[in-house]
Amino acid sequence: MIKCVIDTGLTLYRVERKPVIVLLVMVVLSVPIIPLELGVIQLLIDRIQQWSASVSFRPIVEMVIWLAIVMIMNNIVIGLPMPLAMTRLSEIGTLEERRLILRKNCRLPLALIESPKVKDLRLKALQISLYGCYNTGIHLLQMALQIVVLMAILLVYDQWIPVVGVILTLCVLLYASLRTSKQIEQVKRDQTPSTRLLKHYAELITKRETAKEVRLFGLGRLLTERWVALYETQSSIRQNVIRASELLLMGPQLLAALFSGIILALLVLLPGKEGLSAGSYAMLFLTLTTNR
């Protein structure tokens, strides 16, 4: 997985550097935004708790302004360049995929270009997305960095039991997600010949060169029925795999919800809670719910 992300990132980087760098930089910059927001919320709640009628309300207003500034930084400074970079990466990724496929086809012997095996390989190659691989890897990196930062916040407050619970929950969910992803990807690969056959049936009916013969011999209805039957078979297989995948994920998700409830309860019951302000408690609760 890591090697795949690095290879696709280098491939896209060689095509066009700017969007690759922008996306990576925006992901790294987005990591401290969440703890920064949590810190401002903590200070704001503490200021409100300590405020009295004899004290100026100005510090509270200042904290609200700072919270708004942090949110604006997240939504505009980071939120605007990232979609633009992702859109451009999607375009150059698709361009590079097609270019590589065409280059490979130019080197094939003429006798193999239209062979079923080569057609299946072309369809499988079209299912691979350079942008999708790189984008998935980058966002997994972003999530991992954010989780590390949020768990570091818990450890600062000596909340090691919630940290252990979060790690166990993430491991279970990661295992189930990887397993279901492999099952779905394998089904797509196994259905490549059938997908090619669906395309062939459609071309026989819609292309002018073959439509005359199809109509002459009255094969239109037969080909249409075969296309529908094959499509329904493929759809049924995909639905069964997706249903099985969702059932596989249901157990870890329920376990994660149970862990989250226990962890939140432990936060109140754990020793060492003396001396924590209302803002600190709020930040810890927000940290745990963000990790969910």
What does this structure look like?
Helix content is 87%, strand content 0%. With 292 residues, it is mainly alpha-helical. Helix 1 crosses helix 8 (130-156). 12% of the residues are buried. The model has no long low-confidence stretch (mean pLDDT 78).
Give a brief outline of the structure.
The chain is mostly helical and 292 residues long. Helices cover 87% and strands 0% of the residues. The chain is built from 13 helices and no strands.
Could you list some keywords that capture this structure?
292 residues, mainly alpha, 13 helices
Secondary-structure blueprint of this entry?
Layout: H1 2-15, H2 17-30, H3 33-50, H4 58-78, H5 81-106, H6 110-113, H7 116-127, H8 130-156, H9 160-190, H10 192-206, H11 208-216, H12 220-269, H13 278-291
Mean pLDDT: 78
Structural class: mainly alpha
Largest sheet: none
- How much helical structure, as a percent, in the residues? over 70%
Instruction: Point out poorly predicted stretches.
Output: none
Number of helices, where a helix is a run of at least 4 consecutive DSSP H or I residues: 13
Distance between the termini: 24 Å
Basic shape? elongated
| Gyration radius over CA | 27 Å
Q: How many strands in all? A: 0
- The run of helices and strands is HHHHHHHHHHHHH
β-sheet strand percentage = under 5%
